[in-house]
Amino acid sequence: MALSLDTIGPDSNVEALQRPDSVMPPESRLEMPTQSLRHWSASQERKAIVKHPRMGTWLARLFVFGGGLLLTGYGTYEMYQVVSVSRTTILQWVLVALFTVNFSWIAVAFTSALLGFFALLRQPKTPAGPPSSLSHRTAIVMPVYNEQTSRTYAALEAIFESVEATGLGAHFDYFILSDTTQPDAWIAEERAFLALRERLGPHARFYYRHRAKNYHRKAGNIADFVTRWGGHYEHMLVLDADSLMTGECITRLAAAMEADPDSGIIQSLPLIINRNTLFARLQQFAARVTGPVIATGLAVWMGRDGNYWGHNAIIRTKAFADHGGLPDLKGKPPLGGHILSHDFVEAAFLRRAGWSVYMLPDLVGSYEESPPSLIDLSARDRRWCQGNLQHSRVIGAKGLKLPTRQHFATGIMSYLASPFWLFQLIVGIALVLQTTYIRPEYFARDFRLYPVWPRFDPERALALFALTMGILLAPKIFGLILMLLRGKDRRASGGAIRLVVSSVIEITLSALLAPILMLIQSGSVFQILLGRDTGWQPQRRDDGSIPLKDIIRRHRSHTVLGVLAGLSAFMIATSLFLWMSPTILGLLLAIPLSWLSGQLGAGLALKKIGLLMTPEEHAPPSIATRANELQVRNAAFGFDDEDGLKALFEDDALRQRHADMLPPATLRKRGVIETERALAEAKLVDAETIDDAIAWLHPKERMVLLHDRALLDRLVHLKKAPTAGVKAAE
């Protein structure tokens, strides 16, 4: 029978929610209805309990969007003046239109960063301390999908220790929610979980659940937890497999949620740590220097109409259950089906229902990691691209707040900006080509006295280019200024000179990588518009090295395009070649840059001489140090390296615990034969030894076996493989 929160206090948590032999607490179900995109009434929106002042937020929005509009208007006017020296052609109008779209995007980013810069200059130096007490219970949930158990369990154990150190640990329970589809990884998770529970004692507040089918992926994983066990917890704190959060950060989030009865989601700002490859350290440095400026600007103008990034955030469980149920989009993927970028939509639905969603960017102690190489980033980016473009089907949903629609538009534009930039380059080349090689039409049908010949104002063009570059680089400059002004951060980053040199390196390499990412993202957009779906592959966390042949295969088209663009531009006009030289150079270097991006040696070499250093790298957070120590210890257990079937075969207790953790078996419908199960059973019947089973069973058949108690019983009756000595005697 499910337990009620009314009868469970934080002090009675251990006895009420957990039996020593239980891997999950009793269910306490919450309904999670699917939300509608087409139907919504204002009467369904809850009324705020506390009246929150909004004038500052609206003034900030006026500054950001009004300033962005003025900048865009000025940029568009200057661009028109550049091309209107003579009568303007259709291609020139197209160029002006593309420029306006691209410039508006960076103009709003600039004014938002400028707002964040001013806010950080005024920010108090001493943040509030941790809370002394809490009243409600919070579930800390970590969804995992084919991850390395030594890493994920180390992170969760380090978080547990940090929370316990605050003295408020009794208010938090920990859930590993597995959607793993690789059989060996699944058994490794179970072994790591059981070992963790044994180390921490029979009443450790850790739970583990594995889903047989990863329906709706991460969003479905969280929804399954909420609908089955969410009733026990007032709040849930959602992590990613690479997340780390200090106990102080977590308890402050919980206290902020308790202090604000209107809050539905409170998002922290995770900083990137633990990165060593060149590409990852570039991202780590950029996120540390520029990230707070951008995030603070967003937090100021978004106010209580904020967004959710899917992890390192605390959520009011009942509000999420009532309004976070995602609908499937009509049609097939990639633009139909399950919503991949679920976090934006969940935040939109909670905000529509009257719950506040906001960010605390000054909250320290929230961390994450980043992809180790350019190719790893592009693989993750492909999925995000599809998810954000799906938002074009959601942005018009009834009842959404205007800032919410702006969040969707920003997410969509973050990927459409690449093809717009590509089109602008193509149109610019076409215009120069037209000016250089196409003979003017002297005898046009409208009997003009002079030919229509595209001309440009070179001085205005140069000034506009300088303005555009200034706006693009301004957020990085703002972040650098703040780091230089803050003595502690400046010294921890290697001093002023190293900090400036590091910023130059980051800007230079980012500029060279930008055209490669532009083509990658443009290709993703075109693939999605052509109907090509993406999968959901597990992310690589550590090693960025990729075989050179794979790098060449992924980037050869970029290199060829760089060669063609360079030759064409040089043949058309030297000025065009110089104008396009950053883009051409980046494409020509695509293969070596991508290879270099994933190299540990390159990243560590810069680290050794104090470049691309962050304060968190100079003095690692204690929780990161502890997590790394625990990962080394966990790796020594060897759970990730052992064959799952063999582990179950050799350990009767493990096999029994595994069977106990399985959900109740479902009855097979008569006449319906499951192919994988039939094959698994046939192979087990033929197998004489465990080595036969290991060699013959394919991954899908292994997963069927691991879900089936009857097949597990057959596994027990296999023989052990003969030892080398026995084989020699035979």
From TrEMBL:
Domain Glycosyltransferase 2-like residues, every copy: 237-460
Annotated spans, Disordered: 1-28
CDD domains in alphabetical order: Glucan_BSP_MdoH
Membrane topology designation: Multi-pass membrane protein
InterPro entries named in the record: Glyco_trans_2-like, Glycosyltr_2/OpgH_subfam, Nucleotide-diphossugar_trans
CC annotations in GO: plasma membrane
Molecular-function annotations in GO: hexosyltransferase activity
SUPFAM superfamilies: Nucleotide-diphospho-sugar transferases
Pathway per the UniProt entry: Glycan metabolism; osmoregulated periplasmic glucan (OPG) biosynthesis
Family to which this protein belongs: Belongs to the glycosyltransferase 2 family. OpgH subfamily.
PANTHER family: CELLULOSE SYNTHASE CATALYTIC SUBUNIT A [UDP-FORMING], GLUCANS BIOSYNTHESIS GLUCOSYLTRANSFERASE H
Listed name of the protein: Glucans biosynthesis glucosyltransferase H
Organism: Microvirga alba
Organism taxonomic ancestry: Bacteria, Pseudomonadati, Pseudomonadota, Alphaproteobacteria, Hyphomicrobiales
